[in-house]
Amino acid sequence: MFLADQWQDYEVLDCGGGEKLERWGDVYLRRPDPQAIWPARDPSLWRKAQAHYHRSEKGGGSWEFFTKLPDRWVMNYKNLRFYVRPTGFKHTGLFPEQATNWDWMTGLVSDRVKQGREVRVLNLFAYTGGATMACAAAGAQVCHCDAAKGMVAWAKDNARLSGLADAPIRWIVDDCAKFVEREIRRGKTYDAIIMDPPSYGRGEVWKLEENLYPFVRLCAQVLSDRPLFVILNSYTTGLAPSVLGYILQMLVGRKFGGHVTWDELGLPCTDSGMALPCGATGRWCAD
Description:
The chain has about 290 residues and is an alpha/beta fold. The chain has helices at about 100-115, 130-135, 150-160, 175-185, 210-220, 240-255; strands at about 1-5, 10-15, 20-25, 25-30, 50-55, 60-65, 75, 80-85, 120-125, 140-145, 170-175, 190-195, 230-235, 260-270, 275-285. The strands form three sheets. It has an eight-stranded mixed beta sheet with strand order 1-14-15-13-12-9-10-11. Strands 2-3-4-5-6 form a five-stranded mixed beta sheet, with no helix packed on it. Strand 5 (about 50-55) and strand 6 (about 60-65) form a beta hairpin. Helix 1 (about 100-115) packs parallel to helix 2 (about 130-135). The chain is globular, with a radius of gyration of 19 Å. The two termini are about 20 Å apart.
């Protein structure tokens, strides 16, 4: 498991009964988690929750607040800073398990930059910019693309908060596949690609199991002659990490060599000592 165990501001205190109790800085949130199918270890601990997201039988859900929370607050991860807040669909604007990927890509970017070589990164379905900022802080030029205008604005706020307002980041509000198609026509290339596609798309018709392979095949066409890495994430329950690895090996590894790894993403659970599974990642990198 790729374990995101370097957080100071975030922790999973307990998980069970289809939920998790988390500390986000000084704020305690209770949210659904389909992987936590065992009973909670310490029900009394859950009284710390200041807000609880309840799923609706009709889909979606809503927050129940027990105390007044700030409109948004700041989370720190090493040299990065993020605004977080409870959103309408249980999320907070940050996926803490991705920190293990940030650390991995930061190391690769830093090593190449130290060699005096530039690194151009394309971050697709880039959300609020965690990977964008990690790469930019390590010295990369980043193209950040997401179809949601509000998420790109949030990412810009995070960049300013992390002291990266003047970093070479190109902000794009667009459908990711259409943007990549235009980059191909323009002859643009990138040394690294990060893909974090949703299970289902809201605008363009998108279903991960049907669209993932052709999407990665499309994106592979904008890789430079000497690419550095490709990351492919999935939060679709039932899609094994090995599937992501095999896709990367077929579409990237066969052409560029290098090596592919894959595993679950996970977060340590303080009370139980277990690790909570939080999706899957495939990683390709050059030798």
